[in-house]
Amino acid sequence: MNKIIAMVRKELIDAARDKRSVMAGLYYAIGTPLIMCGLFMVLIGQLTSPDDLKITITNPDNAPDLVRFLSNKGITQGNIKAANVKDSTAKASTENGADTQDLKAIEMIISTDYAAQMNQGKGAEITIVADNSDEKLQNSIRRLERQLQAYSTEMGSLRLIARGIDPRVMQPLKVNIHDQATTDSKGGMILGIAIFTMIYSVFISGMNLAIDTSAGERERNSLALLLSHPLTTRQLVLSKIIAVSLFALLGLVLILLVSKIAYTFVPWQELGFSVNITSEFMALMLVVGIPVALMAACLQLFVSFMAKSFKEAQSYLTIVLFVPLALSMAASYNIAPDMLQWLPVSGQQQALMDFIKGKDLPMLQLLVSTLSTLAIAVLLAFGMERSLKSERVIFGL
Amino acid sequence: MIKVSHLSKRIGDVQALNDLSFVAKNGQITGLLGPNGAGKTTCLRTIFGLLKPDTGKAEIEGIDVAIDPIGAKQQLGLFPDPFGLYERLTPREYIRYFAELSGLSSKDAKEATSQVIAKLRLEDISDRRCKGFSQGQRMKTALAQAIVHRPSNIILDEPTRGLDVMSTRLLRDILIDLKNQGHCVLFSSHVMQEVAALCDQVIVMAQGRVVAIGSPSELCIQTGKDSLEEAFIQLIGTDEGIAA
Predict the structure, then answer these.
(1) Average pLDDT rounded to a whole number, residues A392-396
(2) What is the pLDDT of residues A314-354, one digit of tens each?
(3) Residue A164: inside a domain, yes or no?
């Protein structure tokens, strides 16, 4: 036991002084949440339309009632020419800059016979001119259409009432929608990505240390010296796993702290929900992260011990790390979700996503995936212990 | 005491050790002398249990390395070639680390480290990181690591390689010192002067086999030559003659 403590202490001192190992962990843990925040901010900016939708309305004077209705709903005339005609020149010029800036490329043309048609109770013509293939515009077009539909329904109802008919006759279906999405669950998808970056930090943070302490140790000729001392290969393997896992968990703690702070700067409220890295979530993430960190350490050490050199280990690991990456990504995008609930990494990821959505933790799935994670770790550790008794591995033959 | 009996080991197509037997006694310096590729390092690695012999066994203080590797290694100190320093640790940390791995408690390891640093006059570099050390400084650090836990047996693999005169002398003094304290010192070398000056017993190896065993003067008498070098050549040459 004393020997294991001595070895873990040495590995950690050694790793802390190794710029390459520290930087690999730090860059990821600090950089990723910041990049994610930036991405989310851009995403939110695209998803949410500004409160006032400014469009070009041609012939607004033909339908003052409709224009008033739309402006009540936040859809206003942004046309400078029209504004000039309608309002005072001074007001138009002050709003000039803002108008041209926010003006959407949507034109609503009110037909010249609008008022006449309306008066006669006929269909009055409105034409919307816009590029429907422009994704950024689609939300605005939908919004305008919805409001026009609402106005149309209102007018229709009024006409029916004027003729002594209950407008409900025109609504044979009464659809009620109970939106069960809590505000947190809407953010689940975005959080899926955020959680994925956190789980992956466990793999990234310890990677360099894992290579350095195995393939690197052999390359520096200290592995044979180490094994010449009175310690069992099990002690050696255990201490290396512990050291790498601790480093990986350090990366996880760091990314959690940075995320907690950084994510508060994202304007979540514009999406109608809030993303909060709560202390409970952080605690759960850490607990769930421990077996994942152990497995990551075992996997990386195992692969690096098999490799003949530092460089070889690096290239192998890049390929091997694609597996947890794929599992975690698949879980956050809900591809084949049933099977993935039970697998290592993706199981934990889904459980964490459920937790953040405010659902109950799927205890059985979490337990199975945690146990399978640990089982893989133990198998790899045994494999390493065996392989370190082989001359081929010790001397990298 | 290190006892090797009937060791044989084949690595790939090469018969690295071929029925090798010898004894290195306590209170003596035993030199393992042989040309490059004679199997010296393979022999030492087998004694440490890093390589498994095909036949035969190695015993340290009567403990079979294959049966009780931990117990056997407890009695050993290794000065390896290459040194295997951790460049990011200071000699003090490095020596203490291996002292603890050799079974010393944290407190004892700290004390033993300070003593060995004083003994090898390492004070000026003991708290600097090993990166950038000269060959002599590296040698001293590695040697301190080998003797910090006061093992009864010390094995050195090519200890004087790449050392200047001052470092070689220091190493020689320390080996003689260890011998006088009753330790068993076994080292491999292919440098004649060193072996002649230091060794009580020389084991001449060639092609994984013991060619001759004896003190330097005995070997000279045996071959009828004046110097150990001549005797060595004679012995190796004879061996090659037999092999052919």
Answers:
(1) 77
(2) 999 989 888 888 887 777 666 656 777 788 888 888 888 88
(3) yes
Show the tokens assigned to B155. 């094995």
Residue of B nearest to A218 (CA): B84
Domain identity same for A131 and A159: yes
Partners of residue B43 in chain A, C-beta under 8 Å: none
Is the Cβ pair B80, A224 closer than 8 Å? Answer: yes
Please give the average per-residue pLDDT across A14-24, as a whole number: 84
pLDDT digits (tens, 9 = 90+) for B6-45: 999 888 888 889 899 999 999 999 999 888 888 888 999 8
Q: Across all residues in chain A, what is the average pLDDT?
A: 82
Cα–Cα dist B4/B195, whole Å: 20
For residue A372, pLDDT over 90 is answered with yes
From the list B49, B85, B101, the residue facing A6 with the nearest CB is B101
CA distance to partner chain B, nearest, from residue A349 (Å): 37
CATH assignment of the domain containing B29: 3.40.50.300
The partner residues of A248 in beta bridges, in order of sequence, read none
Residue A341 contacts residue A350 (beta carbons within 8 Å): yes
> Cβ–Cβ of B86/A231 closer than 8 Å?
no
Sort out which chain A residues have CB atoms less than 8 A from B73's CB and list them. Answer: 228-230
Helix, strand, or coil (residue A340): helix
One-character DSSP codes across B209-232: EEEEEE-HHHHHHHHT-SSHHHHH
- Closest-approach residue (CA) in chain B for A13: B89
- Residues, chain A: 397
Contact: A10, B97; criterion CB under 8 Å: yes
User: Per the CB < 8 Å rule, is A17 touching B129?
Assistant: yes
pLDDT at site A21: 78
The verdict on A135 and A21 lying in the same domain is no
Task: Provide the b/e sequence for A222-236 (b: ≥16 CB within 10 Å).
Answer: bbbbbbbbbbebebb
User: How far is residue A232's CA from residue A216's CA, in Å, rounded to a whole number?
Assistant: 20
Same domain, yes or no: B173 and B65: yes
Q: What is this model's ipTM? A: 0.88
B86/A220 Cβ within 8 A: yes
Q: Using CB atoms, which residue from B48, B86, B100 is nearest to A6? A: B100
Q: Can you give the residue range of the structural domain that contains B101? A: 81-150
Asked whether residue B158 falls in the same domain as residue B64, the answer is yes
CA distance B51 to chain A (A): 6
Residues A231 and A205 reside in one and the same domain: yes
Bond preceding residue B159 cis, omega within 30 of 0: no
Q: What is the value of pTM for the model shown?
A: 0.79
Domain that holds residue A231: 2-45+183-394
